[in-house]
Design goal:
Largest sheet: 8 strands, antiparallel, barrel
Distance between the termini: 34 Å
Structural class: mainly beta
Shape: elongated
Strand order of the largest sheet: 1-2-3-4-5-8-9-12
Order of helices and strands: HEEEEEEEEEEEE
Helix content: 10-25%
């Protein structure tokens, strides 16, 4: 786990350094609806670095909660740590830029207590890697601030868990795949 975390942090640092050279930092609210999980809400931060006129790199980190109607405390959090490559398409002299791309991430799913489906047990789904595609629109409010909205489709299935500290192969994968919608502000440097 420590090696994976170091690789992710190195990637975030590389994109953050690039962001200060020609990009920015964004904050966003997020909504997600997965295949096997209920809707989740949350927010996050992203670093965007323009590496060429039409190409950008991003590093994102967010946290979502309230996934399940059957969990007593709505305490299943989902923490994506992601990186992606985007193609930017400015629309002439207008303040609008559309973009699209894809990337990969490491998805942390903290332990939760299941008292309805499995009885009083602690469930810790395996943290794992996944892939996504993203597309959106950015509207420049000024030279330094943009408003953006985007859709993201995540491909992620979890097939292992620890239940009361015992490793278990799940008979059916828990499918987090689904659509996310993000909206926020990007502050350019």
């Amino acid at each position: 786990f420590m090696k994976k975390l170091l690789v992710i942090l190195a990637g975030v640092l590389a994109v953050a350094v690039t962001a200060f050279a020609g990009g920015g930092i964004g904050v966003f609210g997020s909504y997600m609806n997965g295949e096997d999980v209920d809707s989740g809400f949350g927010g996050g931060v992203k670093f965007k670095g323009d590496i060429a006129e039409f190409i950008a790199l991003e590093a994102r980190a967010s946290c979502l909660t309230e996934f399940s109607d059957y969990l007593e405390d709505d305490d299943l959090f989902f923490i994506p740590i992601e990186g992606d490559v985007l193609l930017n398409f400015p629309l002439g002299d207008s303040p609008i830029t559309i973009y699209g791309g894809g990337g990969a991430g490491y998805y942390i799913i903290p332990e939760y207590e299941d008292s309805v489906v499995l009885g009083d047990v602690d469930v810790d789904l395996q943290d794992t890697f996944g892939f996504f595609g993203v597309g959106g629109v950015e509207f420049a409010l000024s030279e330094g601030v943009s408003l953006y909205a985007e859709g993201k489709y995540l491909l992620l299935e979890v097939d292992e868990a620890k239940i009361d500290d015992v490793d278990v192969d799940l008979p059916d994968e828990v499918d987090f795949s689904g659509l996310s919608l993000n909206a926020g502000l990007l502050f350019r440097f």
